[in-house]
Amino acid sequence: MATEQLVWGRTSPRGKRWFEACGAQQLSLQTRDTVYTYSSLSADDSDMDMIEKDVAFGRTDPNTFHWEYSELIHRICDLSVSKTAYRDPIMRVLKAVCCRNGDTGYCQGLNFVVSWLLMFMDENAAFWVLTKIIVDVLVPGFYKGDRTGNSLNGFYIESGVIASFLENFNPSYQRTGLPSLEFSDFFSLQLLIQLFVDSTDLASCIFLWDQLVSEGVSPI
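Structure (tokenized):
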């Protein structure tokens, strides 16, 4: 990580690779729109209310992350100088994503994903990478909640796949008598919704994101 010379809100070599590999760059070139195009629009009030609570009130500040992530954020973004310099880009990207993808809206956990992306890239790249992941990489409806009439069906599909792995590749689990689907839903919620951010160690998260942006999710 030290060799990557990360700067908050600036695109690093790894961030550039992610931007290109997942198809976000190509998607952005299909339109002249940017993160600022969408962040200047009016978003759904309920989305903005949750974004405000999750970001402006400090729920995404470094001290809410596990220590590896927290130390990294503190190293590349001096919050003692200005918290707004950290929070405002997160809020702009989240608002832009909600306006660009109105049928999805805001889902708690995306605040951590956007913070993660801004460690490696600028606001515009972070916006397009997250949009590409939501629209084309993840299972359809992954982040759609009750407001849009979906209630995270995409997440529950992925959780069902994990439950199947537990049943078929870990015979000892079957002897526990625990319901595999309910168990998977419980332990994988934060892991999947936050796309491994703050749910795994830093090196593992980087590895998993390298795979996610280059290979996407496996077909079911």
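The mean pLDDT is 86. Residues 2-138+201-215 form one domain.
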